[in-house]
Amino acid sequence: MYAVYRASQIRFEGELVLEEAYDFSRKFLQDWLEGDEHLDKWVISKNLPHEVGLEMPWYATLPRVEAAYYLQHYGGYANVWFAKTLYKMPDIQNDEYLELARLDFDRCQSQHLI
Fold first, then answer.
1. Are 9 and 59 in contact (CB under 8 A)?
2. Quick one: angle between helices 48-55 and 16-34, nearest 10?
3. Domain limits of the chain?
4. What are the tens digits of pLDDT across the range 81-101?
5. Which residues on adjacent β-strands are paired with residue 81?
6. What does the record list as GO biological process (predicted)?
7. Is residue 57 over pLDDT 80?
8. Alpha-helix residue ranges (DSSP H) falling in the chain
9. Mean pLDDT in residue range 29-55
10. CA separation for the pair 88, 75 (Å, rounded)
11. Distance between CA atoms of residues 5 and 11, nearest Å
12. Measured CA distances, 35 to 7, 50, 54, 97 (Å)
C-alpha cells in the first residue's frame, strides 16, 4: 500500500484513478499507523517509511536524507527479518552495506560543510 501511495504522488491534474489511489492509500496508511497492527515484532519497517512518507511527500525527499533515516533506524540491527517471511534478509543485515552507506553519507555531509 505504501508503494501505491508513493506512486500516486506522481500524477498530473485530472488523473482521477491516481487521485483516488492517493486518497485511499493515504487514509489506509494513516488508519494503519493509528491502529496496533504495525506493532508486530516481525515487521522490519518500524513505521519509518510510512511516517516519513506521510510527513514528507515523495517530491520533497532527498535520497541522502532518506538514507540517513534508514541508517539511524536499521544500522546495527542484529536480527532483521522482512515482513512475515521465515528467512533472514542478508542484504539488509549486511554490515558491509551499512558501513558503506555510513561512509557515503559522511562523505556527502562533509562536502556540504566546506
1. yes
2. 130
3. 62-114
4. 555 554 555 555 667 877 888
5. 88
6. gibberellin biosynthetic process
7. no
8. 2-8, 16-34, 48-55, 63-74, 90-93, 95-113
9. 61
10. 16
11. 11
12. 24, 13, 16, 33
